Structures are given as C-alpha cells and as structure tokens.
Amino acid sequence: MTADLSQLVKAYDVRGVVPDQWDEELAALFGAAFVEVTGADAIVIGHDMRPTSPALSGAFARGAAGRGADVTLIGLCSTDQLYYASGALDLPGAMFTASHNPAQYNGIKMCRAGAAPVGQDTGLAEIRTLVEEWSEKGAPEPVATPGKVTGRDTLTDYAAHLLSLVDLTEIRPLKVVVDAGNGMGGHTVPTVFAGLPVDLVPMYFDLDGSFPNHEANPLDPANIVDLQARVVAEGADLGLAFDGDADRCFVVDERGEGVSPSAITALVAARELARNGGRGTIIHNLITSHSVPEVVREHGGTPVRTRVGHSFIKAEMAAHGAIFGGEHSAHYYFRDFWNADTGMLAALHVLAALGGQPDPLSSLVAQYDRYAASGEINSTVTDQKASTAKVATAFTHEETATTDTLDGLTVTTPTWWFNLRPSNTEPLLRLNVEAKDEETMRRVRDEVLTLIRFSPGENPSPAGV
C-alpha cells in the first residue's frame, strides 16, 4: 500500500512517531529519494541521541548508497554540526532528529551542499512524491555500483570553526551553567568550551532520548525553571539552555531571568556589524522586537524584515548577502556558517560580549531590550480568516495605525504593534504584541484576545507556542 505521508512530511522536514508513522523501510526510501532529487554522488548523515536514530539513519544511508551515492556517517551530532559538515565538505546532508518533540518521535532535516535548505519548495515535495510512489510500486533496483559508506568525526573541526569566528581570548573568567536537556548539547558543549576561561556547570548532559528531566524545549518557560534556579544557587554569570538537537540556545541572566531572543538577536547583530566594519544587512522576522531594527540602524547596518520560518530567513540571507539573521524562537543564522542556524555560535557571542566588559549580563542586555512584549499567545479558532478579518476591522478606527499582511495581520502604531498569524498545521491564531510600556501592551493584547476568543464556538487555548 502507498504510505500516507501527509502527516509525516512537514513544511521544512520529516517528523513523526516511530514506528506508527514511519520506520526503517520508509527511511531507506527517503534516502534513495534524497539522492534522486538532489542528484548527489555523495552525502553526509548525522543523528541525535534518540534510541531510533542510529537504525533510521543507517537505513537512510543504505537507501542512498543503493542509488550510487557515497555516504559519510558523522554519527552523534547536533543539527548545526551536521550543517557544518555539509558546508565544510560541500555535500548534501541529512540530520536524524525530532528536535524538541517527545521521545517517540523522530525525523529528518535535509539540506543541499553548503547547508542550503530543503523544504517544500526546494525539493521536499518531490522527495515525498517519490517515496509515496516507491512505497506502492516497490523501490527501484539498486544501481550496478552502489556507493561506499564510511565514517568520519567532525566534532573537533566543528568546534574549531565556531571558535575562529568569535574572539574569546581576552574575556574575563565566567561561571556558566548549561542545561543540555539530555540532548545533543551534552555532546557538543564540552568540546566547544574546552580551553575557554569558563567554569562550566553542566546540567543533564547525559544523552538520553527519553528526556527524563524535562522536555528539551527551552521555548516553554517550564523547561528552564531548573536552569534558572541553578544559576542563582551557583552565583553564575549566566545560564544557557539548548533544545534537543542543540541548534537553538536560550539565555538566562545572573538573576535567573530569561533574556529575550530578540535582545540576543540585537546584541549579536551589533557585534557582527562591528566585525564587518559597521556595514551589512541583518535579517529579522516580523515578530522580533522593534529594538532589533533600531539597534541595526544605530550600528550602521540595514535591517530586512521577513516572514516567520527558517526557510524564509535563509532565502533572504542568500538574496541580500546578509551577515546575520535572528528569530524570536532563538534561531540564529550566520553568513560565515553557510547562512545556517547555530545556537552555539550565538552563545559564544554572548560569552564574548559579557566577558569583554565588567557589568553583569542583565545590565549588558538592557540596552537591547527596550519594550514590553506579550510573548507568543495561541488561541484556538474555528475560522482563522474570519477571526483575523474581525480583528482587522476592529482596528480600522486607529487613525495612526498602518497594517500589512506579509505574514498574517500586522497592525503598527507609534506606541505599539501586534501580529496575528495563523498556524499552518493547527486551527490556531498566534498573537504577539509589543508596546512602549507594560500597561499599553496588556491593553492591546486583551483587546485582540477578546475579539478572537469570545465568539460562539471559539475557545481559548493555553498560552504558549
């Protein structure tokens, strides 16, 4: 029977429950289809610490080799370590991970040579079509000369490349608590931080895909509570939290308070602009704080606003030759990292900025955190378009407001703005509000939520992403 991939192949990757939604047989077909669509004669494959990852990645390798491609296996790695290998070796790559999803999930993040993204519009749809066809009719016969499968360790070279992009030689000693969430940060952090003047306090560094301590999703405030408490207890200078595949990094200051990813985006943007002579383009999505484009302009750069989603950020990075890009979700993209995202490099920038001056992190980031923000709030609705239209109509009375529809609905005034955008996969509307003060932010937030949540048949869902 034809495999049902409708719930498995997402906009940017493959992700689902193993073995209910996919297994090694399907993984082998994905490997063969990946080679067919990319036309690659060699690829690189890595995987995270989930129990199903070695077998799934091995099956993918067999499928790829059966189509004639040589396969380099780099084994356990973070997603940005796989991007490093794809860039440094100039090979298409596949990373087996389900990021922050629960233990029963697994997935594949794929890229072309040089870490160029593979998404629905850049090859993933064609890969899905081939897998569906082959699952019904049978896989194609292996080529006469299958590819070779070899192993390679890239962790040391990955660390060296990151450290070549940030000068940490003169920083003062720092005490840093790192919560790896039993994910791949426990694999990469010890090597990257080795030799730095850092007193490292590790939390949950054991690689365990069952996530026994908390979900490896630091975007949920509940999952950084342990880190916040430990930073305060240790008297540490800061805390870092990585997600399951360690491509995202969240920062906690010396008081145990979370630092907004927008503030980190602004801080890193200022440093990257200084590193490039005060010139360059910075990409930011439309729900990062308005402090980001302000800081970029103040430091001589050009901000470019784009839709939410890494495929849009990466496309704009390439189109504008941008030096850096950041998202509200703590994805950070660097020109010198093949336009790919790496939370580790952003973390090194934070260490360099903090260690290069005497003040605590809370004081350092205050200049980049200028407004009151709601964070992202989800509401379940029966009709996304109708609810959005109702909000748009209600705010036409604001004489100073401007609106745009780059990604959902954005309404902007001199003192506040909000964005309301639909989820692509669930019946949700996602709201972000920012204002010059807390009172204004709450007023606008509550007005919008009242409009979308309290109509017949519509119910609020818990806040969060």
From TrEMBL:
Cofactor(s) it depends on: Mg(2+)
Residues in Alpha-D-phosphohexomutase alpha/beta/alpha domain copies: 7-136, 157-256, 266-371
Keywords from the named record: Isomerase, Magnesium, Metal-binding, Phosphoprotein
Keyword Lipid metabolism found: no
UniProt-listed Pfam families: PGM_PMM_I, PGM_PMM_II, PGM_PMM_III, PGM_PMM_IV
Recorded superkingdom: Bacteria
Domain called Alpha-D-phosphohexomutase C-terminal: residue spans: 376-449
InterPro entries given in the database record: A-D-PHexomutase_a/b/a-I, A-D-PHexomutase_a/b/a-I/II/III, A-D-PHexomutase_a/b/a-II, A-D-PHexomutase_a/b/a-III, A-D-PHexomutase_C, A-D-PHexomutase_C_sf, Alpha-D-phosphohexomutase_SF
Family under the similarity heading: Belongs to the phosphohexose mutase family.
Name of protein: Phosphomannomutase/phosphoglucomutase
